[in-house]
Amino acid sequence: MPQPFLEISRDGPVAVLTMDRPATANAVSDPDAIGALLDACAAINADHGVRAVVLTGRGSAFSAGGNLKTLREQFGAGLGAPVWSRLAYRDGIQRLPLALHGLEVPTIAAVNGHAIGAGNDLACMCDIRIAAETARFAASFIKLGLLPGDGGAWLLPRVVGRSRAAEMVFTGRTLDARQALDWGLVSQVVPAEQLMPAALALAHEIAQHSGSALRMAKRLLREGEHSRLDTLLEMSAAMQALAHHTPEHEAALAAFATRRARGAATASNQPANEGTAP
């Protein structure tokens, strides 16, 4: 029996999901791997104590995407009629982009190594990507005579733009971490030993804020990808009205008023001629 695919831990309000199957380079196409990620997403959405998520891999890879040893039997010609392959994608790996994209809290991909094919897409399902200097990225489906079957054609252009997404998909070329940074695929590149500290520091910087505001802000960003401006404004007004009535907002206003009062008191106690020429 294979070891569990996903190790889940908590660092206060931050959930850390570690893909832990180095023998398959953390391939995400096997049913138990898909199920583990789906279950984790559902549990996080239901747990309002979670305010941020870090997703990473153990070993030399973030995720190699599809498991080439089982891909034919699970998704390809080994299933028989093509209709079964279509259903296998829909009911299998295609559930991942819906679940990851639908996570209500901010997500950070801490890309520790190779993110290839569906592994590259998995990183793009997260809101923020930080890469170790050892990370590599490729939309390499074309090299197997395949195409992005798990949502990459929707995700990648939104991350790097249409032209660069097309270049990645049509060539299958691998990008190193620095080129990924230049292309906007990641927002930070750090030495490998600093990857998780950097990802956790960012996650905690995010998680210090109101959990309800974070979830609503992320929802607005998601809606902004496809909504009309007037529709998004109406949704923003409704969510902002909710945010105005939260304890976190009241506490922030009170803290601001206290700081302002202290600043005014300090200024009033200064000598009148302080800072001026005699």
Strand-helix topology:
Elements: E1 6-11, E2 14-19, H1 31-46, E3 52-57, E4 61-63, H2 71-75, H3 82-91, H4 95-101, E5 107-111, E6 114-116, H5 118-124, E7 128-132, E8 136-138, H6 152-160, H7 162-171, E9 174-176, H8 177-182, E10 188-190, H9 195-207, H10 211-224, H11 229-243, H12 247-268
Parallel strand pairs: 2-3, 3-5, 4-6, 5-7, 6-8, 7-10
Antiparallel strand pairs: 1-2, 8-9
How far apart are the first and last residues' alpha carbons, in Å?
Answer: 85 Å
Nearest-angstrom radius of gyration? 23 Å
Please provide the count of β strands: 10
The CATH architecture term of the largest domain is Alpha-Beta Complex
Largest β-sheet summary: 6 strands, mixed
Which regions are unreliable across 5 or more consecutive residues at pLDDT < 50? 274-278
Structural class: alpha/beta
List the quaternary state of the chains. Answer: single chain
Strand content: 15-25%
Quickly name the level 1 CATH class of the largest domain: Alpha Beta
Short structural description:
By secondary structure, the chain is an alpha/beta fold.
